[in-house]
Amino acid sequence: MLTGRKPGFGHRISHSHRRTSRRFDPNIQRKRYWLASEGRHVRLTLSAAAVKTVDSIGIEAAVARIRARGVKI
Does a structural domain hold residue 47? Predict the structure, then answer.
């Protein structure tokens, strides 16, 4: 929700160097934060990097960024 992280794509390469498609999924977590300005909890779907971003900028600023992207919380 915060960073817009999506899966990446690439190839599995076997010992014989044959290539088949694979997917690199982001480390997605569901976290629950207390939003003091609204007096309620919000549940966010975040990547591990976005969890660190919320810890550094604060939940209020993070929710403002998410809402600026047009995501309803």
Answer: yes
